[in-house]
Amino acid sequence: MAPFKLLISRVEALKTVLDSVRPVEKNESVPIEESSSRVLAEDVIADKDIPPFDRAAMDGYAVRAEDTYKASERNPAVLNLKAVLHAGESSETPLRKGECIRIATGCPIPLGVDAVVMVEFTEENEGKVSIFKAVHPGANVAPKGEDMKKGEAILKDGDTLTPAKVGVLAALGHRHVKVYQKPLVAIVPTGTEICEVGAELREGQVYDVNSYTLTSLLSENGALVTMSSIVPDSFEQLKSVITRFLDHDLIVFSGGSSVGERDILGKVIKESGRLLFHGVQIKPGKPTLFGLVRERPVFGMPGYPTSCLSNAYVFLVPAVRKMARLPHRELRTVRAKMAKKIVSASGREQLLPVKLVHGQVHPVFKASGDITSLAEADGYIILPVNLDVIEEGEEVTVALLE
Amino acid sequence: MAPFKLLISRVEALKTVLDSVRPVEKNESVPIEESSSRVLAEDVIADKDIPPFDRAAMDGYAVRAEDTYKASERNPAVLNLKAVLHAGESSETPLRKGECIRIATGCPIPLGVDAVVMVEFTEENEGKVSIFKAVHPGANVAPKGEDMKKGEAILKDGDTLTPAKVGVLAALGHRHVKVYQKPLVAIVPTGTEICEVGAELREGQVYDVNSYTLTSLLSENGALVTMSSIVPDSFEQLKSVITRFLDHDLIVFSGGSSVGERDILGKVIKESGRLLFHGVQIKPGKPTLFGLVRERPVFGMPGYPTSCLSNAYVFLVPAVRKMARLPHRELRTVRAKMAKKIVSASGREQLLPVKLVHGQVHPVFKASGDITSLAEADGYIILPVNLDVIEEGEEVTVALLE
Question: Domain B55-142 carries which CATH code?
Fold first, then answer.
């Protein structure tokens, strides 16, 4: 059992990870109603003007603007009602001087019309319409192409689709859209000390927690997860499972929390590829390792549930989001005062789960092996390597786990 | 065509909506790996101690603490190595004075052991282990029940599941979890002026944008959406579609942007239930209406895409989240300076889509009928009813559409 020798900093470790993972290249076609939060894999160019015709922007009366120039509250212009256009209807015959057409929002502007008077400024009575307000040419007319002009690039390759961007696709008549595939992530629990959830625990066993916390977290950050069954911590087994999952974009081992077991994975990666770091100056999370096998990124996460999950927020989420081409997302932070004094002397940067109670920061960390620490936490604070003490009442920055 | 008469404020409208919608009561069982972001519909009580046994919290040597009391860097205590426990292994025979057992993190603590010395402070050589540091009883031992005590309430009915809370369920061996069903939302596009996306547009038609923007937005906020086909704006058709969707928790009509068509829906609701408001003092979004039919909430959203979607952020998202029992979520806001002067004289509160460019706020609103306004926007600012002018350089609060 060789203890860790050289630890790298969290910042350096994250940089190594982000420099090593690549955005997915493969794309797929999905129905637009399932495309929100996905990443566009094509430029979207308007193939038509939207709207495709000049249209009424308001309910009201379609007029020749010049017929209204002298209209006022006291002296309305009185026009002859020539036709009525309900939503979805259009008119073929041109409007002549002194005439108007009752028109619904969205209807194509009839020939001869150059303005619409809002219904609020009119009064209709037996075929005559009083117009109480002068309008200029173009008033309340939405011109053809106002929203999108034919040939215009509207959305770009790499854009994350939002409800409004999905609306752009619908407006252009697209049923499907090309998006980047989600990165395929294999999550591999290791070690005979863990047991499939729901199976009967043998002496000395605990349930596999990490497969579920990692699957939940990474799925929410754009990954498509394959959950592997539990693999024993032997050189041959770990090697063969890496080979099996080389068709995935990322392989994440969890478990093998002990130094000896981590060493086996480290050796497998060294033999088959490159081990880029093993041991991070962070607490919890020291045993985290990372390497490349045939250019496929491979993580070894600490086995202890709180260590594993908090390091997943720090390293795996940014890695997966980069692979998924999703924008880097900083956790939302708040500043708040410590409810009690903290002394830290770990010689490592520390991720301390905390709860906010009446605006005060209470540490909720029990032990790395516990999951309730993080389940109760509202967020975490990062204690610097060189921290001596934080006094009660001192202000700290809490990164929120929302 | 009756113009609107009395408009209610956004705040009053939202209060009316939230007072009228009820959280879903029905629940369902889902696999825990699909439960993150869902809302727990049961209390979770630990049915066992976790961990189920005292265990080693570190890799190292299991000892009787008193055998180490005199150990130091210069004068190590030397103990006989009695056994080696790899991860997942346990030992039956008790430890005696002067002995130690090499132990991996997570292994059950053998009988007679009361502490673990971290491997870093030891040296093993031909069956002898030098201990360079004294430890107290309990050192590096995670006691049984440290994470969860049998009978303890760990998660509560109504908790939103997070990756860590899913981990709690896994730790307790639960394969499935009872969560509240997602509220069923029917989205019904209306009007012959809109066309199913992808079909051939007839003269005067545009594609149905709102079904897609609303489906995207509400699905992301906990709804299960049924997309209806397009329904003509007639009294009988609207009435029958409400009856058809009364098995849903919420019915949202979109379209019928003109005053006359909105009136039909208003009349249908008045006849079959209660119309709670029709006309909001907000721009865009004046035609928004809301009522109850047999206690089922029914929305009439403006037909214009930007009006519809921005009002969906304001009214539908809070309603759906309340129904889904998800916590109310304020949009994240930033303060930034206006890049240009804005004059507002609408007599209504205004939702103005804006883009942040080099930290400055640029309005991107084109027209309510456009969808690109919101597709380009980073967020919106709310201009108060009584606004006269915002000068260039004045600071405003931008609600971010992320």
Answer: 2.170.190.11
